[in-house]
Amino acid sequence: MRTVDVIAKKRDGGALSREEIDFFISGVTRGTLPDYQASALLMAITLRGMTIEETSWLTDSMVNSGGRVDLSDIPGVKVGKHSTGGVGDKISIILAPLAAACGVVMPKMSGRGLGHTGGTLDKLESIPGYRVDLGIDEFKSVLRDVGTSIIGQSATLAPADKKLYALRDVTATIGSIPLISASVMSKKLAEGSDVVVLDVKCGDGAFMKKEDDARALAASMVAIGTRAGVRTEAFITDMEQPLGRAIGNSLEVIECIETLKGHGPDDLNTVVKRFASRVLMLAGREQDEQNALCRVEAALSSGKALETFGRMIERQGGNRRVVDEYALLPSVSQREYYRAARDGYVTRMKAEGIGLATHLLGAGRTKVGEPIDHAVGIMIQAKPGARVERGEPIIEIHHRDGRGVNAALALCSDAIAIGDEAPPHRPAILGEVR
Q1: Is 393 within a domain?
Q2: Entry pTM
Q3: What's the mean pLDDT when you consider all of the chain?
């Protein structure tokens, strides 16, 4: 088999065979396929697309490029979760202990942020001592004892994805739905869960700006999981504005803890409870959505979800006292404010601009491995729909020695609009794909 023939076949709109896809992934994994040929095929796939059968074969081949986590010796249905990412997206940190408190085993391998703000691992590393680098045996031990564990993605899972992503990043082939689907699902299927729940973000601060594109991506990933024998469902959630009020690593950890205490912002509460209720049903813990919601709310109001989070922190080397003593988390004392230029209603708050503003403060990274400042970030004082008066703070900026403040204020100015009438309500959850 010649690589040039495989490239030409896809370039001309043909469907690749399973053998041709395996040949491609094998060459990428072993390093025998030159980057220029791999890049050419990635571009051909981006331009010509793939059938769901091709995409499923691509995913399976990427899974088989590395190992798989065997969770079969841990009792119960294991539910995995993945988000396509957004500004203020902290769902996993709340959902995992909440689901575990309700009796669902939730293993979670997460990544670091690149671009807007920190990722799940960066946020958790705000907690003094918290380890994200557990080995698989340690990971499984925490799962058995606590019901959940959030760690970094193992380098042995779907190694082909890491190599392909590096090429996609520099060849303008990131946006292909088949390639995104295979990238996400290869890692989720290798993690060993019985069920996968997906959070596909849609809007200004998401990769998928349009709802139709978000639905297409969700449908593709659900189909891949289903064909692989793993029950897979997706929620399409709003990312037109930031989720919650905190953007920045330690600030988001505090908001997660407040939400576990029952004091979270409305949009964050809505999404977390909807996800948790569905997770309980998929794991067979409840058959009725209302009963599932009642169980979720009981885990929050009783303090059981918060206690589970504390146990996970402790088992992974962190200081569990942070759930009550926020002063243990990184913080800065310096503040600046973006204030309303006129009386009226906040009609718009573009998530991408707010995320980029946080990045300029030092909360995110541009290149893999760059250090980030866990203490800096943004707190939203007035979200879209809120009535404000001229001079009232809309954004509270937590900064270190003025770094990025002026640029952040300019981005906030571009991202936020004030009008005479309140904007139409946009739901936090836009739809589901099953």
Answers
A1: yes
A2: 0.94
A3: 95
